[in-house]
Amino acid sequence: MDPERKQQILNRLKTIEGHIRGVQRMVEEDAYCIDLLNQTRAIQQALAKLDAIILANHLHSCVTTAIRSEDVGERERVLTELLQVFESTHR
């Protein structure tokens, strides 16, 4: 993974971590349920953006390399991995 992409991912993770700590404080302070839900939705959206960055990196590196490879088994392995990730999210 290139250093710029890695830093982008780490920054997003730190932001998400901060949001989670904020939600923990809100729970401790008995915050209004809708406010909690709004914050957890924001965390879910931030995680979805993180997933998109990681997926794009994977497609532009590992998957591209595997598809260009002469090794049919490697191509199938990478495609199967992708399918498994998306199938597990839709169960």
From TrEMBL:
One protein family per Pfam: Trns_repr_metal
InterPro entries: Metal_Tscrpt_repr (IPR003735), Metal_Tscrpt_repr_sf (IPR038390)
MF term (GO), any: metal ion binding
Signal sequence, renumbered to the chain: none
GO biological process: negative regulation of DNA-templated transcription
Name of the protein in question: Transcriptional regulator
